[in-house]
Amino acid sequence: IFFRHMNNAAAAGYTPTATLTEGVVSLSFVQWIEVNWITLILDAFLICLSASFSGLTLGLLGLSATSLRVISRGGSEDDKANALKIMTIRKNTNLLLCTLLLGNVVVNNLLSITLAEMTSGLVGMLVSTASITLFGEIMPQAACHRYALFLGAKAVPLVKLFMVLMYPVAKPISMVLDCALGKDNGDVYDKKEMQTLLQLHAAARQSEITCDEQMLLSSALEFPDIPVSSVMTKLQDVFMLDIDDKLDNKVKTMLWLTGHSRVPIYDRNARNIVGMVFVKDLILVSSSEKLTMRDIMNQYPRQILPPIFEHEKLPDVLKLMKEGKGHLAIVQRAHIDSPGDPFYDPVGIVTLEDVIERLIKDEIVDEMDVYTHIEQRDRVDNKRPMIPINTFSQPTDPVLNASQIAAIASFLFQSCIRAEQLPNSPEEESALKAKVRELVAQASFEEVLMPDPDGLGRQASLPPEFDAGEGGSPQSEAPLLYCKNEPSDLFTLILSGRVEIVTGEDNFKTYCGAWSPLGLRALTEGTFTPDFTARPTETTKYLRIPFSLYRAHIPQPLPEDSPEDSMGPRMSASHEGQRLSQGLLQDTPELSSHAYPTSPLSNQREVHP
User: Fold this and answer.
1) Is the pLDDT assigned to residue 485 strictly greater than 50?
2) Sign of CA pseudo-dihedral 186, 187, 190, 195
3) Which residues, 6 or more positions from 103, have their beta carbon under 8 angstroms from its beta carbon?
4) Are 80 and 96 in contact (CB under 8 A)?
5) pTM value?
6) Which domains are delineated in the chain?
7) Is the CB of residue 347 less than 8 Å from the CB of residue 236?
8) Could you give the percent of the chain with pLDDT greater than 90?
């Protein structure tokens, strides 16, 4: 029995060994394996092929046709070249898929068979499973997923070779898939998906798309679906003029304050809009002519866009406005449910600015806007003086109102008064603003009435008897603002009218008009001796500030200030003065005519020839 087992074991490839222990013979058999290097090389080659098929299946098919076209047109030079190479084999998606999957299946089966022949059934299964899973699936797919474009371009010649070898089998299968599933045209996103994609790109750290760019692009995608009714200005919020309104100074002031470039005109009823006037056309029209809006519309006929319905989309309105037919259109609503014939009722207006604001999804606030959103009545933080330059040339009360005080204070800071002590905190800055307004409110507001011989409301020139003699001294009772070589401690700001200045040994004459400062040295030197004579030649309004009143509100500069700081005020405001004056008008609504005491120096003078 012993020898028979030894012979059978040796014949089966086992090495038998016998051990004699305490009279008992023990037999053990150790299997030996003959190393076949050709088989090992074949297995390594099959593992590489399995890794290539598996990785390229994920890498090449993971690149959609759309992404390849995007990269080939807008990527870097290397990415463009790689994308163009991959597109040559990516055109027929189903044929590429069948080639890679068939090759992967064939290679994995061969690998399992060769590994099983080298070992026993269980050991071969474990070795082949581990080899295929680790080296043929996980590692290559991870690499090709991360570097799909680069590795896919490098493997294009190999893939083309296998496509040719497997064409007889892969082509019929791919034709069946094309008929059943259709061809792959790439990923196509709708508007909502594209907006989500933009949001994801803007949120990514490595993205070059900013949040503002993302918002602008998203707004452009929404633009075609926006109706006119969502951006129009409602009719009750529209500034309009009656066709019989006269173009007087009051209407001009209203046009200036509103800041509109186009104004709709209605006839009797605000819902009966008959036309439009351009504010720039009114520059050539004098208030003394007393023309009505009807006359102006006849003189300057302006084309207006045909009425549009509130349900129309913004791209259609933008197309109309781009054709040059107008930048303002009336929005109307059709009433078809009521008995009788349908009628159309205007509900608002829409301008080119409204359309563009919705396109960029942001408000365009220019220098003349009063409200950011007219529906919400949120005022624009506008730093400019909201007062016309010709305000003081019109009949006014002997006391300055709140808006006039704010405008004059802003002008003094920006043009005349240099900040001598800069505030160190917002509280000090607010206190200084209040002092400047108090200074203007308590200053002397005076008016000199000159004759108007033609009675047309124009400011008459000075009659001959008011002219100066050889010595430059006036020969009438016209008040002198300044007299040559006579000391004065008054600063004067001309608000309207015309003032004659006589200076020099030759009595050289010059003239100054509205918003002209005189006697600047009085604000820093106190009493100064003018080298000129100044007197009104027309009806003139002016503000006078004595040095004592000025110094009571504006503190004196510190002694350690630089020599430049003690040179007196300059005609142009300093940077610090501009900064301080920016907020002078912010609190204007809080002012009233009773906010400050009326100056006892305020008076009105009348000169008779």
Assistant:
1) yes
2) negative
3) 49, 53, 162, 166
4) no
5) 0.59
6) 2-31 (no CATH), 37-181 (no CATH), 191-224 (no CATH), 228-379 (3.10.580.10), 391-606 (2.60.120.10)
7) no
8) 31
What is the DSSP secondary-structure string of 199-249? Answer: HHHHHSTT----HHHHHHHHHHHHGGG-BGGGTPEEGGG---EETT-B--H
Determine the residue type at 256.
W
What pLDDT, on the 0 to 100 scale, is given for residue 391?
A: 66
Cα dihedral sign for 417, 570, 368, 407?
positive
Look-up: residue for tokens 């993205």?
A: 207
Residue 571 scores a pLDDT above 70:
no
Strand partners, 328: 351
159: nearest Cα among 112, 78, 108, 98: 98
Q: What does the alpha-carbon distance between residue 102 and residue 77 come to, in Å, rounded to a whole number?
A: 34
Residue 379 tokens, joined: 């005022």
> Cβ distance 487 to 511 under 8 Å?
no
pLDDT at residue 184, rounded to an integer: 72
- pLDDT higher than 90, residue 408: no
Determine the 3-state secondary structure of 328 from DSSP: strand
Q: Would the pLDDT of 178 be above 60?
A: yes
Written as six digits, the tokens of 171 are: 């082509």
- The torsion angle over the Cα atoms of residues 66, 68, 69 and 70, rounded to 10 degrees, is 90
Please state, in angstroms and as integers, the Cα–Cα distance from residue 400 to each residue in 135, 358, 488, 543, 546, following that order: 92, 42, 24, 10, 18
d(CA 461, CA 451): 9
